[in-house]
Amino acid sequence: MEKILLRNIDAPDSRTLAVYRARGGYRALEKVLSEMTPERLIDEIKASGLRGRGGAGFPTGMKWGFVPKDSPKPKYVVCNADESEPGTFKDRLLIEKDPHAIIEGTIISAYAIRSHTAFVYIRGELVFGASVLERAIEEAAAAGFLGKNILNSGYDCDLILHRGAGAYICGEETGLLSSLEGGKGWPKVKPPFPATHGLFGCPTVVNNVETLASLPWIVNEGAARYVAIGTEKSKGTKLFSVSGHIKRPGVYEVDMGYPFKKFLEEDCGGVANGKKLKGVIPGGASMPVLRADELDGVTMDYESFQAAGTLLGSGGVIVMDETTCMVRAAWNIARFFAHESCGQCSPCREGCHWMEKIFQRIEQGEGKPGDLDLILSVSGNIMGNTICPFGDAAAMPAAAFIKKFRAEFDRHIAEKRCTVSAGQ
Amino acid sequence: MALEFSQASLKRFDEIVGRYPKKEAAMLPVLYLAQKEFGYLGAEAIEYVAGIMGVPAARVYGVVTFYTMLNMKPIGRHHIQVCRTLPCALAGAERITAAIKAKLGIQVGETTPDGKFTLSEVECLASCGTAPMIQVNDEYYENLNEQRVGEILDKLK
Ligand SMILES: Cc1cc2nc3c(=O)[nH]c(=O)nc-3n(C[C@H](O)[C@H](O)[C@H](O)COP(=O)(O)O)c2cc1C
Ligand code: SF4
Ligand code: FES
Fold this sequence. Notes:
The complex is a heterodimer.
Chain A: H1 17-22, H2 27-35, H3 38-48, H4 60-65, E1 76-81, H5 90-97, H6 99-112, E2 117-122, H7 127-142, E3 158-163, H8 173-180, E4 204-208, H9 209-221, H10 223-227, E5 237-244, E6 250-255, E7 258-259, H11 260-267, E8 277-281, E9 290-291, E10 299-300, H12 302-307, E11 316-321, H13 326-340, H14 346-363, H15 371-382, H16 390-404, H17 406-415
Helix pairs in contact in A: 2-6, 2-9, 5-7, 6-9, 13-14, 13-16, 14-15, 14-16, 15-16
Chain B: H1 7-19, H2 27-38, H3 43-53, H4 57-66, E1 78-83, H5 86-90, H6 93-104, E2 117-122, E3 134-136, E4 139-141, H7 146-155
Parallel strand pairs in B: 1-2
Antiparallel strand pairs in B: 1-3, 3-4
The structure holds flavin mononucleotide, iron/sulfur cluster and FE2/S2 (inorganic) cluster.
Flavin mononucleotide is lined by residues 52-56, 58, 80, 82-85, 169, 171-173, 206-208, 211, 388-390, 393 of chain A.
């Protein structure tokens, strides 16, 4: 498999401009500025089939195409480096090891929509990552890849590094924009979409780190080479972050369509300590869990994960072995969402706390007979009734844990204790 | 005396605000600057930031309470944050928390009497492949066990 996203990370000093350039860096930007109109660029990215890697999988070229060309307002691009979905740590790797690929991709994205001001919104905890990016932005500016009249093309673009301050919801694009506007990270009702009404009411594109880091390769090698990799609806390569009870955790670059079981067993070395697999969350904590017996024939792409009843999401693969108490796992995730709900809409605010409390009491041996149906009903009331997709992201995994491991939940309630593990 | 920025911080404030297309956008970096200078963001610091940002204090208050990294109360010199989310929990995060509690003699949410350590539990820090992990101030410590976490605390001054 060819490495597109991880092509540079093992090179010594990969984060420096000198090494990035020696490995072909910023050639894509030169090509775009000297040979391609924004329209040509958008067509090329549409032809590549690239879909956003932040979780929703929306086609990148199409998103750019929604930005009005003739708007008198300024336009903005934001690189979403808020990476906070539990189980996901791929963007952090790119930020720390290949910051120039992200910067080059962000400038290319800005050029596509004729924006002159771009931001990187990085989660506040990644202090080291922010310092790497800051240094790289300075290097890029000093070398003429940022600022006025980039590479004598007449095109101007500034890039501003902005640190968040600890709030998962700021990864959701409209929450991010509220935060960048200086307020609480409260998501906004869509429509209108950021493409027309984004930052300060101006046309804005928000793209994920991994999406942007894919762009230089696609521009250099051409859309035709990118579409040759992957499946019908999932093109190119994708980063998967693998954690939990697995022998070799880490970030893997995989051709879309790769067999999931083979990936876990061979590439990642299988379940750690010779234990058996019990369940796996394939797309970050927001996505429904799969049981070990549901993995046959599943491949790593948008359509196959969906057919299996889950979603590819951010590609955060969380592996759980046979000793895992699923009640405890479900409670842990419910607690995360209860902690992170922004509190704006009541089904989400109340529902997340309610689900957490019920999972907690079951786990502590105080569950009641109707508790599981109660959680399913709370989850059902959240789904589709909230301002932003966080509500669904909290509701889906809760319901999935119960549906997939119902017998274990029933036993935990009946026996008033865990029958699976001594603790986690 | 009411709180105010030092000359150096005022200069930094101007630089920060100058970077953004609109002044409001500079709210978080300005609050970080204030937190660094004043130690935490109490009522006086919030009033001061509201004044220099030209927004109502209620708005700044809303922002400060929204984000976990902005503190309204003083915290210890070393803020130990244990990640408790699922991947870290699967790798034994609870044992790390228990070891720290035992060593420092405090519960989660508390500060040692000498003001040296505050212990918190936090959600996923994008370090799940090297779990369990903690963050102490700006620094990540990954692939931990009880012994290593003890050694790390011993080294903090
Ligand atoms: C609750 C929630 C959290 C999200 N967190 C992130 C995140 O941390 N990083 C990210 O890139 N996208 C995140 N997203 C997706 C963004 O809203 C948005 O779709 C994405 O940044 C667009 O970029 P893309 O098209 O390149 O994927 C999140 C979405 C939701 C609903
Ligand atoms: S769904 Fe939840 S996180 Fe999203 S806006 Fe409503 S309360 Fe906030
Ligand atoms: S769960 Fe602890 S870093 Fe992700």
